[in-house]
Amino acid sequence: MSVDEDSRWLEWVTKQFETIAGDDKEIDIDEFKTALKVKESFFAERFFALFDSDGSGSISLDELLKALNLLIHGDETDKLRFLFQVYDVDGFLGRNVKCCVCFVLTGSGSIDPDELRTVLKSCLQESAISLPEEKLDDLTLVLFESADKDSSGSITFEELKAELENFPEVMENLTISAANWLKPPDQEQKKPQTPRYLTRAYWQNNSRKLLFLCGYVLLNLMLFVAAMLYHRKGGGWFMLAKGCGQCLNFNCTFVMVLMLRRCLTWLRATWVVRILPLDQNILLHQIVGYAILFFTLVHTAAHIINFARKSQSGGFSLWEYLLTTRPGIGWVKGTASLTGVILQLLICLMVFCSSTFVRRSGHFEVFYWTHLSYIWVWILLIIHCANFWKWFVVPGFVFLLEKIVGIAVSRIGGLYIVEVNLLPSKVTHLVIRRPQFFQFKPGDYIYINIPVIAKYEWHPFTISSAPEQPDTMWLHVRSMGQWTNRLYEYFRQPESLILCSLFYLQVSAKSGENHRFCNIKCYVDGPYGTPTRQIFASEHAVLIGAGIGITPFASILQSIMYRYRMRKHTYPNCSSTGCENVKDSDMRLRKVDFIWINRDQKSFEWFVSLLTKLEMEQADGEPEGQFLEMHMYMTSALSKNDMKAIGLQMALDLLAKKEEKDSITGLRTRTQPGRPKWEKVFQKLSEENKGKVHVFYCGAPALAKVIKAQCEHFGFNFYKENF
């Protein structure tokens, strides 16, 4: 470090020390735990003792600076000596003598199996990983045998150093991750970057959407100018109101066109999908909704100003213009002003209740019921404006026809929930008897109504089973709102056995009441298409699911493997080449990468049996696993270069190699700790040269922005699921 950097670091650490130390200018064990955010007391006490060089029971600023200087700025040997002392538990008996550049070993100078087991157990707790005692013993044994080179029954510092050299990615940045809190913020001058929306990659990857939006804006501008010129004799404010009114005629019908789900599903199977951004219809629906709000506010404001000016010249007062029919404005008994006020209130209410804050905060029903007021909006618009019906008649007829078809389809045949599984993280797995006429494609979604939960509510969910699965289809519903919580609680409580008693079956002691058979009536509207219908036209598909966002990919993965087996049956000689050069009309895929990111260990239990089956099917014909490659990430687990997790991650790697399966999920694919480093992930994908890469994502919107930015950088196509 330069002199300036060292001075800035010293100033920053001093400031942070004063924040957590308080008036006594010393940090005790509780303050230390809080500052470093260490979950497990074992590591907190070990780190604290090593920082507390004089054994006083508290850490001074000088002691903190010496320790942090080693951990953050020291060389690999210094950091390894610190790590060794953490693991050398019986050396933690007296005072720890420490100089400014390294820690001096004062204990036994070796690590025995019991010490290693104690450390690994604490590592598991720190990473929120739960494993049986037998598995902990296996992890201890495999790491100890690998590190104890001379079979002496203990691990020396040199042996630990030699073992760590087998993990270069760990040695690259060995530190206590929580100590990063005490690093000063980066003040380096960043090179000015071109805004994302002005980059060539952004315009190339969003060309259809941007061209569509340009056309949309141009059309609104033309309508606005034409209406203003037609009413130019009425004055400026009247012209402004009429211009916005004409734009509202168009937008209040176009917003409906964007939600004609059956028409859009049909269009996705045609050449139109290559021209129009059909996969972004919900985003466009939201944009048009905000445009309607803008035009209504300007339209209303312009009329109010115009009425205020008229009221000054006599005749009627302002409130009579706005709230009565006396002025006779409007083609239906002078009701234009009254209907306009009501329309303004309804549109504001609909837009507010459609916001992400309302929909994502467990109040989906508020959004659902207020959005149904679109019927009243259309009725009031027909009364309010003499020309609106001309814009509305054709789209309105198609919309009505869609609704009639949807009601008819949902009522034809008997659909019943025949099996229920309550999974970890409050996920309800519904198995629905599938009628013969019900056909869908991988990734499609449906609207479901379950009268025993809510008689009039319909909610969208992705079908998680493959179309090739006969007789039944699956839904996986995570409890995130009022309706989904009622669904979970209904099947969790004994009262639900009233409807399930004749069909109830306790499958095993493990599942117990979490698995039952029943016969509950439900109604389904759909299926409706999604962007994932493009997956089989891709050559290299990357599926990224976050949490419950795996549901559309569960269906897709099953269907992919079904078609993969059929292709191998049709082309039996492709087993030696991985079928990479074989293409057919049903599936052009040459490579599939599946990335699943979960917060905790239990979340992997949702689909682990399915993923295990997919691995086994592929392993039979593809020993190298070339076609379908899985990548699992557990965000609660600490990374490999964290001192609180390094031993555990090394042991998990060694045991996975020995047993050929992951200790966390049971899959052959090793679960990686922390979050994916997206730049490295996408760089590797681009280097595989398996054809054009198409990335399909389902999960949190915040992560979608990160992945989309990386796709634009590497020139990948990006598709986002909404259900």
Which descriptors apply to this entry?
Elongation Factor Tu (Ef-tu), domain 3, alpha/beta, 723 residues, Rossmann fold, 27 helices, six-stranded antiparallel sheet, six-stranded parallel sheet, globular, 49% helix, 11% strand
Itemize the secondary structure elements and their pairings.
Layout: H1 3-21, H2 29-36, H3 41-51, H4 61-73, H5 76-87, H6 113-126, H7 133-147, H8 157-164, H9 168-171, H10 200-205, H11 207-230, H12 236-257, H13 261-267, H14 281-312, H15 318-323, H16 336-353, H17 356-359, H18 364-371, H19 374-384, H20 388-411, E1 415-423, E2 427-433, E3 445-449, E4 459-462, E5 472-478, H21 482-492, H22 497-500, E6 515-528, E7 540-546, H23 551-570, E8 591-598, H24 608-621, E9 628-634, H25 646-659, E10 671-673, H26 678-687, E11 693-698, H27 701-714, E12 717-720
Parallel strand pairs: 7-8, 7-11, 8-9, 9-10, 11-12
Antiparallel strand pairs: 1-2, 1-6, 2-5, 3-4, 3-6
Describe the structure.
- It is built from 27 helices and 12 strands.
- The protein has 723 residues and is an alpha/beta fold.
- The strands form 2 sheets. A 6-stranded antiparallel beta sheet has the order 4-3-6-1-2-5, sandwiched between helices.
- Strand 11, helix 27 and strand 12 form a beta-alpha-beta unit.
- Helix 6 packs across helix 7 and helix 14 runs antiparallel to helix 16.
- The longest helix has 32 residues.
- The chain starts with a helix and ends with a strand.
- About 4% of the residues have low confidence.
- One of its GO terms (cellular component) is NADPH oxidase complex.
